[in-house]
């Protein structure tokens, strides 16, 4: 079943929309008509030409302007894959905001002292939380496809150190589990409880489910995460992240590399524009373009074929980006 939702028709529907996702604002009837005209034909185009894409949510200048659900179910939880890593970085920000962390420059062994004797290389002793988030720890890692099974955190810490921390990017599926261990240690809370308190509650998300180190989320909730970053970590009247923290997340820490081939910040990929991206295997994407005040969230079929085709990224930075430009041009007419 296909579903194309462009917020049309009645003020009742608009009011329901406003209740679902504050602080997104209610569209005027004229805006709704222009949105519908701009995205006309998108539903059929995705359904026929982009078979991997399962769901799409587009937020433009604080309004939800387009939704698509191949299965007709906007409330379905979908496998976010490594978008989970980007959400984990937000929890580091909430810990800083609440004073549970002093800074990103704290060393890992100061935060978890029992790991200190597990690695005899002196360079391991200067690895910081920033290095973990930036994937520049220097550990021996060879995972160009980003699909290696993560190690248990303590075991990951024992790996050989091949380069000085901060010197080289290497995509590391074990890194987020080490960050999780740090967060659970400094807060004395399970990670699911932290997600509930620091993200689900303030952003009015549906409670995620967790499987194989991946969060399952609604596509609209992925869009909310992107919109939180657009607002410099503020949601309605609540400062979820420290002011300026989003700039740190999205500032390149290295030239990056595989599997995406873009510069890498702190849990987020960065691109020219400026654009920043949370990217999960096989086309799970939060694509944020601040110059247009644009957020695109996409979920895709999780398969090697979907990963190879890359339909979600092409859709976000291609046809949807062009439609957003066209829609904003109509504001002056």
TrEMBL record:
Gene3D superfamilies: DD-peptidase/beta-lactamase superfamily (3.40.710.10). The keyword Signal applies. PANTHER family: BETA-LACTAMASE-RELATED, BETA-LACTAMASE-RELATED DOMAIN-CONTAINING PROTEIN. The keyword Signal applies. This is CubicO group peptidase (Beta-lactamase class C family). Residues 55-308 form the Beta-lactamase-related domain. Pfam families: Beta-lactamase. It comes from the Bacteria. Residues 1-18 form the signal peptide. Keywords: Signal. Coiled coil: none annotated.
């Amino acid at each position: 079943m296909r579903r194309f939702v462009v917020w049309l028709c009645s003020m009742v529907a608009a009011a329901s929309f406003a209740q679902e996702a504050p602080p997104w604002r209610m569209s005027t009837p004229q805006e709704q008509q222009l949105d519908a005209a701009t995205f006309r034909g998108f539903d059929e185009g995705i359904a026929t030409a982009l078979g991997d894409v399962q769901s799409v949510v587009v937020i433009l200048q604080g309004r939800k302007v387009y939704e698509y659900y191949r299965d007709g179910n906007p409330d379905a939880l979908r496998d976010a894959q490594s978008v989970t890593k980007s959400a984990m970085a937000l929890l580091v920000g909430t810990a800083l905001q609440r004073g549970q962390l002093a800074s990103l420059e704290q060393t890992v062994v100061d935060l978890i002292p029992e790991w200190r004797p597990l690695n005899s290389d002196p360079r391991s002793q200067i690895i910081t939380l920033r290095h973990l988030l930036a994937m520049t720890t220097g550990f021996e890692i060879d995972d160009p496809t980003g699909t290696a099974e993560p190690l248990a955190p303590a075991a990951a810490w024992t790996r050989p150190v091949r380069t000085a921390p901060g010197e080289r990017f290497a995509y590391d599926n074990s890194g987020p589990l080490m960050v999780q261990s740090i967060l659970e240690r400094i807060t004395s809370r399970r990670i699911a409880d932290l997600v509930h308190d620091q993200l689900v509650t303030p952003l009015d998300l549906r409670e995620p489910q967790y499987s194989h180190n991946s969060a399952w989320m609604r596509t609209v909730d992925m869009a909310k995460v992107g919109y939180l970053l657009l607002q410099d970590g503020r949601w309605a009247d609540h400062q979820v992240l420290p002011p300026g923290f989003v700039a740190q997340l999205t500032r390149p820490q290295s030239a990056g590399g595989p599997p995406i081939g873009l510069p890498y910040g702190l849990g987020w990929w960065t691109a020219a524009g400026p654009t920043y991206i949370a990217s999960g295997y096989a086309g799970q994407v939060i694509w944020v373009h601040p110059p247009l005040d644009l957020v695109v969230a996409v979920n895709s079929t999780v398969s090697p074929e979907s990963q190879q085709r890359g339909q979600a990224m092409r859709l976000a930075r291609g046809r949807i980006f062009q439609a957003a430009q066209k829609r904003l041009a109509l504001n002056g007419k």
